[in-house]
C-alpha cells in the first residue's frame, strides 16, 4: 500500500487522521530555515505538505526537487491560511516521515497551464506535457465523452462489435496504408479507412444496431489538424429511415452535452438542405451560432426563390467589378458602421490574402443617422446604396461587406469573411453549442483531376428514394450530367446527412444501398468495371443477395467531437499521443528504418526515387 | 418506421394490437392450401406469422422463401398451440399485408445451430454464419464481457485512454507487422504488439489508472487458435504493489462472472508459485478444476520438500526404463482400476503419439479388493507397488499412470495426460470456473535458437524486490547463469503474475521497472547494446528520469477470456470476422495484390524469393 488517500481526497473532516500519500512534488516553498511547504500532486488533486525541522531534524525537505516522486506519512492538520481555490484547501499534512520513490531531473519545460515549452519540445516530451492540467482535462473530457456515448448507445440497444484492422485495399476513397503480409508474399493488407463495409455486413447478419469507437487510417497529406490515424464513433442501424437516424444521433450528442458539460440542449436541432447551406452560408457546415447570412446580390447560377441573385440592384451602374463578376455576395455585419478607414483597410488586406484570394472588398456603412456611405459612392447613389442594404437585411449601424468574382471562390471567401467577422465580434463562443443537420447532399461530384464522377459521401450511400428510378433507368453518365454552381454536382440527391456543431462537421452518414442492382449501378457510375467491382467488393455484392435489410448509419469524428465540446479547434490537444504534420511521432521517433531481416522476411525492398 | 415492435417483444398482453414487424423468414410451413405459418426472425427473437388466403386472397405467402426480408402488418392473436420454448410463444400475428423488402437466394448452408456448412464455407459467407444463433450468442457474450469490464474499471477509477497504432518497430518480443510510410520514404511504422510502453508513459504522466480494450498485432506463424490481430483488456496502475493488482483484477473477473453468467464467485482465488505449478501440474497454467497432481517419483533435478523425487521407491528394481530415466512421474486417476486391457492399450497408444512423444506407459491398478496389479509386475513386488501407490496418494480403485524419460518432455507429457484423463472423466466442465494466480516466474529464460537470455514476460518486468540488488550488482550473465529443470531459467524471479482460468492463461502482468539504471541493466542482460537500447527505447529511459512512479499492470487476452467464459476453447468463434490459419480473411480475400501506383508512392517493390 503506497497510499491511504489520494492527493485530492482529504477534507477538514479528516483532521487528526494519520495518512500516507504519494505523488509528485509540484512546488517547494521554503519559509525560513526550518519550514518547507510542498504541494504534492497526483491525478486527483493537490495537497499541501508541511515539512518542519522543528518537528524532526530528519525532515529536511532540501533534497526534494520539482517532479520528484515521494511517499509521505503524516497527520492531517487544519490550515492556518485556507486556500479556497482547491478542494483540499482547508487542510495540510504535517509530515512525519518521507521516502523518495524516484528523483526527477529538471523538466525541459514547466508543468503548468501556461508552460514555457514550445510545441516541438512538448511533443518530444509528451509524457511530461500530459502532466499539465490543461492537457489532462482534455484527456479526461475525451474519456467522459466516450463513456457517455457508450452508455447512450447501450441503452438504445446498440452492441459494440469489433471489426478487423488487417483488411483489403479499396480503390474508392482516400489512400490506404498497406501492410505487407509475410505469410502471403507479394500480398498486402490495408488498414481500414472506416469499418463501412463491415458494419453493413453486420446489418446483413441481423445485428440490428452496431457501434464501435474505433481507429481509422488515411494516408493523406496532412493539413493542419489532420491525423493519419483518427477515431470514429461508428454506428449502424437496420430497418430505419433518415428520420429515425437523425433522432437517434442528435439524442446521442444531447446526452453527451448533458453528461459531460451539464448542458440541457432542449432546442430542436435545426435542419438545412445542402443547397441552402451553400447559398446562405457559402459552405456545407455553417456555424449557426450567429446570423450574418450571405446575400446573393448576383449569381450566374439561378435558384428557385433567389430572385435577388439576378443582379438587378447592382448591375448597370458602371462599376465594372460588379458588372463583370459571376457572383456578388454581401454580408451585413451588425454594429460596425463606425469602422475607421484603418479598420476597413485592414479588412481589405485580409480578403486579399492568398488563402482568401479576393481582389478587393466593397463597404456600405449604414450609419445610425440614416445616411449610407460606401467605398463605391461614385457608382451608386445613396438611394441605391439604401436599396442594396435593405435587400441585404442590414440594420441601422451595420457595415455591409461585399465581395465579387468567380462563383466558387467568391462564395468560399464570403464564408470565410463571415466566420472571421463572427470571431472578431465574439459571436463564436466556445461554451455555446448549436447543432445543425445538413441534408440533401448531391450524390456525386465531379473530380476534375480524375476526370470522373466520385461519390460525395461514399459509394454505399443510397440516392433519395425518388431518385432511385433515375439511377436504375439511366446511363450513369446521363444521370450525373447536370452541373450545379461552378463545380459540377449531380442533380441526383443522396439520402445522406451531416451533423454540424458550431461550424464543424462532427458526424456524417447515410441510408445505404441494400440492393445488388443499385449498388452495381453506383459502382458503374463511378467508372468501375464490373470485374473491378467484383474483385474489390464482391463480398458486399454477394451479401446483398441473401436478404440484406434496409439500413443506414452515421460516424462521428470522435477526435473533433471532443475538441469542439472542449472548446478547442485543435484535435491534437485531445489525443494522448498525436503525430505531427509529417505523420511523425517525435517522441518515439517513428516511422523509422527497419532491419534487413524484416525486408527479407517480407520479400520487399526499397525503391527510393 | 419500418416496425412498431421487434420479433422478440410481443406477449399475450399485446393481443388485439395492430403491429408492424420486419425481419427475416426463418421457416415456411404450409398447412393445406390456404394457410401458411412463417417464423419471422430478427436479433431479438422469433415471432410466428399466420398467412391465410381465407383472410385475404392477396395474402399468398408462396413467393416468400428462407431468409427473405419482409415487413408485415397484422393483429396480435392468441396462439392455439402455444410454444413454451420461445418468449413470444403465446401469440402469433394474423397478417393483414406484407411487403418484400429484399429477396434472398438460397443460402449456401442452413442458418441453424447445427448447420450443414463446413468451416471454409462458413468463413467465406461469414455474414450468413453470423446469423446463426450459436455464433450470435458468442458475439453478444463478447459485448457483455466488455461492457461489464468497462463498468468495473470505471467504478474503480480507471480511464480509457487510446494509444497509437502507427508506432515504431521494436527488437524484443514477437515479429512486428510494419507499414511503409509514404511521407517518410524508406521508413516504416510498426503496428503495436501491445500498448506496453505507452501505458507505462501514461503512468509517468500521472494518469494513475489506465485501461483500454485494444487490438494488438503479432506477425507469428499461426498455430491453431492464434490470430494475427487480437484484443486485450489492457490495464495499468500507479503506486501499487503486487497484492493491489491481484485483488483489483480478480475482482474484475469475478464481476464479469456475475454480470455475464450470474455466477457468484465467492471463493478466494488460489495462488501458486510457478515452480509449484511446474512440479505438481507439469505446466504454468494448471487446470485446477480437478486434482490428479503429478507425483514426481524421480527427478534429476532437486527441489526442497520433494524428497520423493529422488527415486528411492523405484530405482534398483532392474526396470531399466525407470532406472535410466531422468524423470519418472505418476498420476493417480480415480476410479479407473477396472480399465480393460483394450483401454490401457489405447492410453498407451495415446501417449506414444508424436504430439506426446512418450515411449510407453506404466500402469498400477489399485484394485478395490486391496490387491495391486501392474504392467511391471516382474520388476516390482506387490508390496513395492503398494508403497509406490501410497506415496502417489492413490486411493482404492485408482489407476496409477506412470511416464518416464527426459525431464522436460516427460513433464509435458504427464501434464497432457492429466488433462486428457480429466476430460475423459468429465472433470473439466465448461460451466465450472476456477481461477488461479500463478506467481514468482523466473525473470529470464534461455532461448537456445538465439543463444541468449530473453525476458520470460517482457523487458519491462521488475525483478522481485529481493532480487533487484542481484540485478544491479552483478554482471547480467552471472545473474542469469543458474539453470532450473532441463530448460535454463534464471534464478532471479520476476515480480510477475499470470491469471489462469480452467487451464488457460487469460491474463498476465507484472510490476514494472521504473528506474533508468535497472531498466538499462535489463536491456544489457538481454544482449542489447547501449546504442540499440537508446535507439529503440530512448523515450522510455528518458521518461524514467523525470519522476516515474512505481507502477504495474496486467493485460487480459480478451478473445480467450470470452471463449473460456463462453465454454469454448476456440477464440475464432468469438471474433466477428476472424482470419484463417494462413492469416487470410477468406470473405474479403485479403491480403491481396496492390496497384503499381501504390508501390510507386510508397517507394518499395517486391523482392520475391
UniProtKB/TrEMBL annotation, chains A, B:
Pfam families: GAD, tRNA-synt_2, tRNA_anti-codon. CDD domains: AspRS_core, EcAspRS_like_N. ATP binds at residues 218-220, 227, 505, 557-560. L-aspartate binds at residues 172, 218, 457, 512. InterPro entries: Aa-tRNA-synt_II, aa-tRNA-synth_II, aa-tRNA-synth_II/BPL/LPL, Asp-tRNA-ligase_1, Asp-tRNA-ligase_1_N, Asp/Asn-tRNA-synth_IIb, AspRS_core, GAD-like_sf. Its main location: cytoplasm. Residues 196-199 are annotated as: Aspartate. The keyword Cytoplasm applies. One of its GO terms (molecular function) is ATP binding. Its EC number is 6.1.1.12. Keywords: Aminoacyl-tRNA synthetase, ATP-binding, Cytoplasm, Ligase, Nucleotide-binding, Protein biosynthesis. GO terms for biological process: aspartyl-tRNA aminoacylation. It comes from the Bacteria. It catalyses: tRNA(Asp) + L-aspartate + ATP = L-aspartyl-tRNA(Asp) + AMP + diphosphate. Residues 145-578 form the Aminoacyl-transfer RNA synthetases class-II family profile domain. GO terms for cellular component: cytoplasm. Belongs to the class-II aminoacyl-tRNA synthetase family. Type 1 subfamily. Catalyzes the attachment of L-aspartate to tRNA(Asp) in a two-step reaction: L-aspartate is first activated by ATP to form Asp-AMP and then transferred to the acceptor end of tRNA(Asp). Homodimer. HAMAP family: Asp_tRNA_synth_type1. This is Aspartate--tRNA ligase.
